[in-house]
Amino acid sequence: MIRVRGVSKSFNGRRGTVEALRGIELDVGDGEFVAVLGRSGCGKSTLLRVIAGLLPASSGEVRIADEPVREPRRDVAILFQCPALLPWRSVLDNVLLPIQVHGRPRSEHREAAGQLLSTVGLDTPFHKRLPHELSGGMQQRVALCRSLIQRPRVMLMDEPFSALDALTREELCEVLQRVHMEYAATVVLVTHSIEEAVLLADRVVVLSPRPGQVRTVLDVPVPRPRSLGHDAHAAELARCRAELHDLLLASHMTGV
Ligand SMILES: Nc1ncnc2c1ncn2[C@@H]1O[C@H](COP(=O)(O)OP(=O)(O)OP(=O)(O)O)[C@@H](O)[C@H]1O
């Protein structure tokens, strides 16, 4: 589904050239959930933006559904750290925004929007509220629904929960697992949180410090839904966490 081949990216700035990514190779299968993990500045967001078609690669190629990505695609949704809801529109109208932007009738999608909001735990009384009447976690749930309303094939997420407190993040990880199981979208999540990566992903791709290169890929062979609390597979989750922790720490010490 997503095929990244030999992607490198350098930025030319006033202080010279920054090599952000070097020779990234990555395949993400249909319905797979892949987390890209690495320390700050290793090129995670750059990789996601190249996959999204928001940024051209310096060399190499990204293909989605066997087509080269040269610009943002309609069937690819992107979720950022900031929910970026329109403050004057109700929750329901924010979710319906992509429908309106693409000139499709809102009335046909109102029910789907309501269902999506219920799936993420926002029932009818919330639908008429304005964004400022919601907590940060609730706003991010609305942004998640807005990205799902068009039934994307692929969801790209850049640290979507990093501005939230630890418990809210965990709650949203639970929501995201449910949404992923229900909608079966292919997901690439960028994060610097080992916990998040292990809770959510089928595979965790660890990038080395700049220039970002694929250092290792770890399978998380644990059935969903997963939890940080009592989980029958707690030992396996802990093993994956420890392995990723050691890898990230080692790459910090050696710089590879
Ligand atoms: N538009 C740009 N112009 C110049 N340099 C850039 C640009 N975007 C990113 N960089 C540089 O590329 C490198 C990788 O940045 P990127 O944001 O992809 O890292 P990251 O792993 O997502 O970091 P973080 O976890 O802190 O968000 C950094 O050194 C950054 O300063």
From TrEMBL:
The keyword Acetylation does not apply. Residues 2-234 form the ABC transporter domain. GO terms for molecular function: ATP binding; ATP hydrolysis activity. SMART domains: AAA. Keywords: ATP-binding, Nucleotide-binding, Transport. PANTHER family: ALIPHATIC SULFONATES IMPORT ATP-BINDING PROTEIN SSUB (PTHR42788:SF13), TAURINE IMPORT ATP-BINDING PROTEIN-RELATED (PTHR42788). InterPro entries: AAA+_ATPase, ABC_transporter-like_ATP-bd, ABC_transporter-like_CS, ABC_transporter_ATP-bind, P-loop_NTPase. It comes from the Bacteria. This is ABC transporter ATP-binding protein.
